[in-house]
Structures are given as C-alpha cells and as structure tokens.
Specification:
The chain is an alpha/beta fold. About 20% of the residues lie in helices and about 25% in strands. The chain contains 5 helices and 13 strands. A hairpin with a 2-residue loop joins strand 11 and strand 12.
Amino acid sequence: MTRVLITNDDGIESPGLHRLALAAHQGGFDVVVAAPARDSSGASAAVSAVAQDGRIVVEERHLPGVDGVPAYAVTGTPALAALIATRGAFGDPPDVVLSGINRGANAGPAVLHSGTVGAALTGATYGCHGLAVSLDLADGDLTDDDRHWDTAAAYAVSLLPLLADLPHSTVLNLNVPDLPAGKVRGLCRARFGRFGQVQMRIAERGTGFVRTALEDTGARLEPGTDMALLADGYATVTPLQPLGEADVELPELPEPVNAARSAPAA
C-alpha cells in the first residue's frame, strides 16, 4: 500500500489539510500527517525548527473527522516535516509527500516562496514522489467553511496513482478553482505564467522599519498559463523538479582581483 505523508504550510489546524487527509485515507492510502504547529506560509524549503535540548518538538494530535490517521504537530517548517519523515520520524518513510490544501493558488514562479510546494520538493529531493495542491481563492469574502476543499482534495487523490510513472524526483503542482466539482471545466497541464497578477511593493520606509503592500499589476493573463486557466475555471497541473545543477557552459573564468600568486620558479 502506498504510504502518504500529508503536510502543509497553513498549519495542522487548517481545514484544507483535514479534508486532504480524509480524502487520501478514504482512497485507500496509508496516511500519516505531520504539519507545522502554526502557520508557516512563505517558508519555501526552509528546514528550521524549535528545539529543546537538541530535540525537535513534536506533539501528537487528533484530526477531527479523520479517525485512524496518526497526526503530529511539528514545531518547524513543512519542508522540515517532510525531511524528517523520510528519515522515519513518523514510522515507515513515505512513498509520497502530499502537501496542501493551500489557502490560495501557488502559480507561476512565485512557487519559489511557497511552503506547500517547498515541502513536496523536499520530499522529492530525498526519494519520494511529490504533489502540492492549492485552492484558488478568487472570492476573498468567503469563510473557510464556505470553501470547496473537497473539490481540490478529489483532484489531488485522483493524481496520486500517476506519480509512480513519472520520472524520478518529479513533483506535480496542482491548482484548483474554488468551485463545486461539477463546475470545474476540467484538468489541464499548464505552463507558468508571469510572477503573478499581484506584486509586492514598498509602501513606506522609515527609521527602523519597512512597510510593504500588495497591488494588482494589471498584467494581461497569458493564454495557456496556470493563472489564465484558473481564471477560466480549469484546474491546472504543472510538473516541477527540485533545484539542480544548470546544464550550461561557462565562459573562461576570471582570476580573482588581487589574488595571491605563486612566485615564479627561480
């Protein structure tokens, strides 16, 4: 039976994680949950933790409505939870790191900063398959109880059997519209769009502080990209791979300035 570690970056109390764990458990997978004790959004693949006497603090939890699934709150980042899981911290190492369901889409190159995606990439770096799943919160006025977490969970679980046939270390980045399953127009492979339709700017600088704000860039959505397809009501999937050496040729390397040189032979 495929063993699945479920983690996220919104914290172990998030409803998206609970619905994902339930869907994977009901799908017949061997599920264990290990997620940050508190929100770790934007953590990317950082592996920091709170330690006491050199021990990473881990607390057993019970997830409401997900009976029979062991769960652990980790006082660290989602990537750390994935990393120590591959080393047997929560029982047998997982075959798959399933990360999410994130509040908000993780699209375009902004996935670089996502703790949800960072956990899946970390798992892939250490021998697991990886799937990151996010729910696109187009309507910002809804509460968590009104979100369609089950739609995203169903798409994620349907993709799990495909992972074994993908090249080693491949991670799938899944984004799902916040819609009932019957209203999603389908699942499409998508390429990355630009860095996102919302960008950070410096709103104020003062003595000892900087204040940031988000603003709409007004950029046109590019057809075929994750952002454009999500806006049209499609779920999107984009294959990723962990950071690796670039296959490029470098020009002749310069000598360091003022570098000490060996004295010429007498």
